[in-house]
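[Automated response] Your request has been received and processed.

Submitted sequence:
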Amino acid sequence: MRHILALLIAMFSAQVAAQTQPVATPAAQPAKQWANTQGSYTLKNFKFRSGETLPALKLGYTTLGTPIRDHTGRITNAVMGLHGTGGSGRSLLNPAFADELFGPGAPFDLRTTYVILPDNIGHGNSSKPSDGLRMRFPHYDYDDMVEAQRRLLIEHLGVSHLKLIIGTSMGCMQAFVWGTTHPGFAERLAPFACNTREIAGRNRMWRKMVVDAIRADPLWEGGDYQTQPVQGLRTANYLSILAGGNPVAMQARFSTRELAEKALADGIAQRGSGQDANDIIYQYESSRSYNPYPLLDRVTVPVLWINSADDFINPPELGLAQEDVKRMPRARFILIPASAETKGHGTHTWAKFWKAELVKLLAETAS
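Generated structure:
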């Protein structure tokens, strides 16, 4: 969920942020340059669940590797990765994720695996409010995002079947939407850092605080601002930093008032660049209708579900995942213990914490 804004918590426990969903980047580690292809596909007259229609919905995407086809022409080696709120497909190329998972001998050997990283509606190079419609942009939700991903795969990339969907934060929730609305499209699911219940309780409260903070800024002007509503954005970022971080690591790393306040100021300055207030409102509000729980019994493929014990957004003390995993016959739930090394909500993007379990999932028989 770090619906986040990429590269924030590089300051806070070296996390990479994707606005609501903290992702992290090791500070001293140079990023590898993974060969990739970027593209876009336009869906004509896309109808949203709200009843609104967009004449042309553009979806950006990144791919790595090459598709392999069987004798019928069907692509057999596709894997899809889904980013968190505020991120993009390319945010999953950060070293903490890509350098652990891609390449020879890694879980996704790019010589034999075709990796697809879509930009969700409202994110990256896909259509978004800041393109010009502002608050008149259709009010999308996760179901709309999944439907757009499905059409991108089938209509444009020629993919009718996936070996795996791996999703972080918002992408985690979309993996469950995929599993319950399109059972069997993916042979396996790897949802990291989410729950399967309606966004309610504290989770809904802090998201609404973000939205309300922006709307309350006098500069917002109903979404038709001349300059970005910086006060509202600052409060939104404050909330995201608290929601995404690991308190143990923050205490250790920023152990004095001066260090903590400097880290906060640096983080806000880094996050603020390039943000659009209306885009953020839509990103946070897109979770409003999420609730795959009633349909979990449709998920019969192998599932690796991982949360972390230091996740403010999905607090383990609620016990929701431990209970809901029982609804899916081939699902395993793992709670990563909190430590000074984990990354709060952003642990989902640090593959070193869960890569071994992902290897086990990929070795499971799909049917």
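Summary generated for your ticket: Strands lie at 17-18, 21-22, 37-47, 53-64, 78-82, 114-118, 164-168, 189-192, 303-308, 331-336. The chain has one domain: 17-363.
If you did not submit this request, please reply to this message.
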